[in-house]
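Q: Got a minute? One more chain.
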Amino acid sequence: MTTPPVHRPRASRLLTHTLVTALALAIAVPVAWVLLASLKQKSEFFGSPWTLPKSLHFRNYSDAFTTAHMGQYFLTSVLVTLLGLVLVLAVSVPAAYVVARYEFRGRRLVEMALMAGLFVNVNYIVVPIFLMLVDWDRALIDVFPDGFFIDNPAMLSLVYAATSIPFTVYLLTAYFRSIPVEYEEAAALDGASRFRIMTRIMLPMARPAVTTVILFNFLAYWNDFIISLTLLPGQGKTLQVGLLNLFTAQKAAADYGRLYAGMVIVIVPVLLVYALIQRRLIEGIAAGGVKG
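A: Always. Here it is, folded:
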C-alpha cells in the first residue's frame, strides 16, 4: 500500500499564495500607477507611462477640486451616501428584527416580497422611477415651481435606500435569527421594552452584520453612475458623473494629470472606509459562515 506524497499540501499552499499574490498585484499595480500619474505634470505624459514623476505635482488635485468642480461633486456624493445609509438602516434594522422575531399574519408574504426584491436590478427600473418623479413634480408645480423630486440629492438618497432595503433586511434577518432568544428573554425579565431590547441587546450583537451591510451599501451608493446621472441632471452631480465630465474635458485638453487626480479622489474614500471596517467585516463574514 503506497502512501500519498507529503509534498501535496505544501504545493497546494504555494499555489494558493501565488494566486493570491498575483491577484493582489493585479489590483495594487493599477491603483499605484493612477496615484503616481496624478502627480505628474502635463509634459511627462508624452514619454513612457511607467516613468516616475520628476516632482510631486499636487497642483493637479487643487485644479480638480476647484476648476473641475470635483470638490462640489465630492460633497454631493458624501451627502447622498451618508443620508442613504442612515435611511436604509433606520428602516431595515427594525424591519429585520420584526421579521426575525415576531409572529404576525402575512409574515411569510413579507419575506417572499423581500426575497423577490433581491432579484430586481434597480438600473433596469431607473427610467420608470424617473418618469414617476417627473409626474410628481408636475403635480406639485404650483407649490414647487423649480421642482422638488428631480435634481434633489435627498431624493436620490431615498431611492438608494428604498432599492437596497430587500438585501439589507434579508441579511440582517438571517443574523438576528442566529442569535439565541435567551438574551431577549433575560432582558425582558429585567423589564426591558422591545425597543430597548432591539437597540441595547440585539443591535450590538449584530454589529458584524450591520458593518457588512454598511460596506456593501456604501460601495453601491458611492460607485453608482446610472441612477445619479438620471435623477440629478442639473449641476448637483455626484462624483462618478463628475468624473465622466472631467474625463471628457481633460481628454480633449490632454491634461491627464488632473484626470488621474479625479480618479484618486474617487478611489481614496473607498479604500479608507474598507481600511476602517475591514476587521469587523471579516468577523461578520466568518460568523455568518459558522452560524450558517
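A: The chain has one domain: 58-291.
Q: Perfect, thanks.
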